[in-house]
Amino acid sequence: MPVPRIPRRRERLQDIAVPGHKRVLLAAPRGYCAGVDRAVVAVEKALERFGAPVYVRKQIVHNIHVVTELEALGAIFVEEVDEVPEGAHVVFSAHGVSPAVVSAASDRHLLAIDATCPLVTKVHREAVRFAKSDYEILLIGHEGHEEVEGTAGEAPEHVTIVNSPAHADTVEVRDPSKVVWLSQTTLSVDETMETVRRLRERFPQLQDPPSDDICYATQNRQVAIKKVAKGADLVIVVGSANSSNSVRLVEVALEYGAKAAYRVDYADEVEQSWLDGVETVGVTSGASVPEVLVQQVLEELAGAGYRDVEEVKTAEEDLLFSLPKELRQDASGNRDDRALGGRGRP
Q: Tag placement on the chain: N or C end, fewer CB within 10 Å?
């Protein structure tokens, strides 16, 4: 995709001496996960296959840069499907939608392309299965987040949202012998486990999900930043304010030893004052962030003397997800060469 021009400050960061050696610890894995890659490529392929405009319900992923790029290609982002002209193509975001949204799209005869991350879809299926068995589902997540709304919408009469560990101390259930917890995929692993611990103290028969709900990418990025934070005076997380996993990375960095941590969308948001007395800067990015934005931060830091970059790798990621079935072939009916995502990730 084309890279939009990034506004720069009038003056670049200054290279001011510090007592020790300036360096950068660069976390890996970072950036795009398989679900984000799939969703972004899905919008690109829909535009190529069907032409502009293609409508997208909500932000396809929570990153302002990605959304801006896709808008330039002809994507139109809407809040709800009733804003989409009847019969048009609409893409559901990586965060998933409730059955009510699917039904509303069908009522308007929209040609829907579901770009929901398969790991989110897995949680939806768990919710349906437990609801059929008449379990009460304690869904750990942030109320109002699109993913939580979509999952809760699968079985609203069975789902209670638990926002935090403190909320776990007050939530009530109908039958403590038939209760299970599920979670939003992008939460802090540590905070989620604390919430589960408190829930289990009150409801000893609380069941676990069949498999881990917090996605592999969220966990891997948190493990990497934990290791980086121990040796960093400052951590910079590249990611947007509405990206749950990016915000969590800032919190995790502070919890695991970073003296300061900030989130930025773009390199020109890095403040000179953040670098006062800083020898080691940790850098990472959320799971919806293209690598070009990280490289621009590294370039900005290099201008301030942080040219020694050491990658701290804690895991390898090679997972790819198939595109939605509507996009696996080109206009001629041949298999598309990007049917499995298409972007490399660090």
A: C
